[in-house]
Specification:
Layout (H helix, E strand, L loop, with lengths): L9 H17 L3 H15 L5 H17 L3 H18 L2 H17 L3 H19 L7 H13 L3 H17 L5 H17 L3 H18 L8 H13 L3 H19 L7 H13 L3 H17 L7 H15 L3 H4 L1
Amino acid sequence: EISACLVGSEMCIRDRVLFAHLEGVKRSDAEAGDAALELAEALAGDNMTSRQRAAWARARGDIALTAARYGDAKAAYAEALTIQRERGDAEASGWILQSLSMVHLREGEYEDAAARSEEAVQTLQAVLGDDHPSLPPAFNSLALTHERLAQYPQAIAALERGLKILESSRSAAHFTKGVLAQNLGGMWIQQRDFVAAKPWLERAMTSFEQAVEADNPALAGPLGMLSDVALAEGNLATARAGFERSLRLREDGMGPRSGNLVPSLIGLAKVANAQGDAEAALQHAHRALHDLDAEATLDPEDHGVVLHQQAMAFASLGRNDEAA
């Protein structure tokens, strides 16, 4: 099929870039994504337009971000941004700025992430208008940067703004509504206000259930956070059942070895420690650390949380040196 493509044809280039996204980003398989891009580049030769070169560079950035190759991601996104600005495509520039903010966020460069995200939102609003229904993901990214700076009121305001846009536009974007509601619940959990968090997380579950099948791993997010609420309320059985279900959803959807399993494993370790089962807590914590070492995590605080649960378990077993 590939060899039948006309060399350098726009359709062939588009298909190869889309394939790279599918293989390299959606399936978190950076090697396959790189291979697809290399093949597409060989087919394209020197015949790419500036728009195609920008799409190419952005695809390279997406794949590098997936593989935690942050330097490569920054370079690729910067190349794409330069091309799009030269072309005068402000909307495309805005979305690339949002991607750059995510690179800074992963690297722990929170001030830079916030600056890029603010610039992205302003750029997109200038092109699309203040209440365009495609803006909520940009507000969600902005909220995540504020969260890392412990600027919770600003984060909550950004998320609520995104939800308001979707509701006022009568959008049926249930998945995006679920993401925004889940993150609003998360902001309140960060502030230890579980009462405020719970209705947002329940709303997130409802939105996701309207958007995806019952076995979709997206449900694991709000389910795990609702389990955190149950744990804070002292409902250990409910919390354990919720964390176990969230782990199954993630295992079935993402595989048995993934950094995405870590939130569920942390929750199970917390429940085990609360129930006085130190050995089970250590097992969950050990597996979480293995997954964190094997794959870049979305949350740089996860290592600390897992080590804390390990320390609590060691202390319960009288293994004080290891706890220390």
